[in-house]
Amino acid sequence: MVTIRVGSRYLGRVEEIDRRIVTLLAGDGRMSFTDLARETGLSVSAVHQRVRRLEKRGVLRGYTALLDHDAIGLPLTAFVSIKPIDPAAADDAPDRLAHLSAIEACHSVAGDESYILKVRVASPLALEELLNQIRTAANVSTRTTVVLSTPYEHRAPDLTGGPAGEPAP
């Protein structure tokens, strides 16, 4: 068994079989209970109960579709670091930027910047417009890194071992 943490909460000890289920679902959120049962050696009803329990405990928070951003007209990905212009101002940038749907993720970070935003837009011009909206809405300065390519993304975590492939405690 191993302790799993979600956000700032520890959810207690999780059995090896639950870690296997979480790993399988992280790799394919549409995996059927039948396939999960086959992969774990449990019955379909036992897998169903375990998945529901993992959902109730907050280990599994939801399921989502992975999109081909090129195919939907959002081929340009960038990371935008933001820093308040007035360091004494309230730290409410995430709230001020929540309405901008081009922002895919907002991460609070340590370092010179306060947050790093992952954004997806249609073109360099759209990125320029978004940067202006970000600066205006949150009263921040920005530093932008444009993504050239993404060799991999959305990798499932390895919950079966520790650092460098060592067995979990």
Automatic annotation (TrEMBL):
<dbReference type="InterPro" id="IPR011991">
    <property type="entry name" value="ArsR-like_HTH"/>
</dbReference>
<dbReference type="Pfam" id="PF13412">
    <property type="entry name" value="HTH_24"/>
</dbReference>
<dbReference type="InterPro" id="IPR036388">
    <property type="entry name" value="WH-like_DNA-bd_sf"/>
</dbReference>
<keyword id="KW-0805">Transcription regulation</keyword>
<dbReference type="Pfam" id="PF01037">
    <property type="entry name" value="AsnC_trans_reg"/>
</dbReference>
<dbReference type="InterPro" id="IPR011008">
    <property type="entry name" value="Dimeric_a/b-barrel"/>
</dbReference>
<dbReference type="InterPro" id="IPR019885">
    <property type="entry name" value="Tscrpt_reg_HTH_AsnC-type_CS"/>
</dbReference>
<protein>
    <submittedName>
        <fullName>Lrp/AsnC family transcriptional regulator</fullName>
    </submittedName>
</protein>
<dbReference type="InterPro" id="IPR036390">
    <property type="entry name" value="WH_DNA-bd_sf"/>
</dbReference>
<dbReference type="InterPro" id="IPR000485">
    <property type="entry name" value="AsnC-type_HTH_dom"/>
</dbReference>
<dbReference type="InterPro" id="IPR019887">
    <property type="entry name" value="Tscrpt_reg_AsnC/Lrp_C"/>
</dbReference>
<feature type="domain" description="HTH asnC-type">
    <location>
        <begin position="14"/>
        <end position="75"/>
    </location>
</feature>
<keyword id="KW-0238">DNA-binding</keyword>
<dbReference type="InterPro" id="IPR019888">
    <property type="entry name" value="Tscrpt_reg_AsnC-like"/>
</dbReference>
<keyword id="KW-0804">Transcription</keyword>
